[in-house]
Amino acid sequence: xxxxxxxxxxxxxxxxxxxxxxxxxxxxxxxxxxxxxxxxxxxxxxxxxxxxxxxxxxxxxxxxxxxxxxxxxxxxxxxxxxxxxxxxxxxxxxxxxxxxxxxxxxxxxxxxxxxxxxxxxxxxxxxxxxxxxxxxxxxxxxxxxxxxxxxxxxxxxxxxxxxxxxxxxxxxxxxxxxxxxxxxxxxxxxxxxxxxxxxxxxxxxxxxxxxxxxxxxxxxxxxxxxxxxxxxxxxxxxxxxxxxxxxxxxxxxxxxxxxxxxxxxxxxxxxxxxxxxxxxxxxxxxxxxxxxxxxxxxxxxxxxxxxxxxxxxxxxxxxxxxxxxxxxxxxxxxxxxxxxxxxxxxxxxxxxxxxxxxxxxxxxxxxxxxxxxxxxxxxxxxxxxxxxxxxxxxxxxxxxxxxxxxxxxxxxxxxxxxxxxxxxxxxxxxxxxxxxxxxxxxxxxxxxx
Length: 449
Fold this sequence. Notes:
Elements: H1 13-43, H2 47-83, H3 87-123, H4 127-142, H5 144-159, H6 164-187, H7 191-215, H8 232-263, H9 268-284, H10 286-304, H11 308-335, H12 337-344, H13 348-361, H14 364-380, H15 384-409, H16 411-435
Helix pairs in contact: 1-6, 1-9, 1-10, 2-3, 2-4, 2-5, 2-8, 2-9, 2-10, 3-4, 3-5, 3-8, 4-7, 5-7, 6-7, 8-15, 9-13, 10-11, 10-14, 11-13, 11-14, 12-13, 13-16, 14-15, 14-16, 15-16
């Protein structure tokens, strides 16, 4: 059978994780670069425009979070079936994931149009900030179907061990976005809405590249569009893994919602500073996200091959690599925080608050690496509900501490709440993973029909 990476099922685990995650890092680098470029260009429009973009992100993130559950389920199942050399079922998993993605995109688009205005009102947006944020999300919602489908197709390729192709497609689509952004934002004068249009066009371009790749038969798992085969059992299996993963992501989005709601009372500068810090952090954690995605493939394929000890060890090796990288990033960001914030907006209050955010949250990068990677390992084992429990409890604690610390120490207390809750649940995640004893899994798909 064709194999994309010989280190997944045998040899050095470290090499396996590195060779899988390196292309993902490059792909996500360009994806995050896109977000940073958006923030950079929009920053030229002033603090209100940056704040509007910051307000838009948690609303868009909920859409991404729900869609990510399907892609997580697809990656885990495809990896498991490819590891067990059952390409037929891997194809069924792919086609079932596509059907779910289409249905989810239509549902999320409608829900987004209906509830986005209420969400922005809840967050405290008003006036020009409200109008710009709503314009941005409405345009993004029009392109939801392309965004979700390209997520799913990329997840299938990662499941079969191919992280290079998603990297190439990700780089290409983000170069397109980076090039056309200034045209829509400044030349046509569409501002924040122009940034959204650039993103949608890039997603359509990327989806087209994925279709072309599958149509030419270059993947291990075929995408047989003319003979779609999907079973209720396979859909249930994807949802069994994907729904807790989606709820976990939504829980994180809810945490961001309440964080913004608290800091919005401190004014536009505080929201803008948080948005800049959030984008910078998103850029910095790319290696960890890449390692976490690779862990799903490593754990899943070894689980499918009944190599349980190697499957569990893949999670620990991934944590070791992720925390090492984040320790270096956190230190560099701590000593250069003010300079980094000033790149995007040099208003003194924005720089002051943004610097404080990055310095207080620097240790959080270590903790988030542990939580994210071990959550992905649990998902690959078919235990998405474990990671959901950890995330929900962490978000609840974080929100409670944020309100408490805010009443005691003001805005600084909100950042400390994020860091402290991260520490507690990083330790809890390691303890739970240490105690967990994996077993060979027979998926809940009863037949090949």
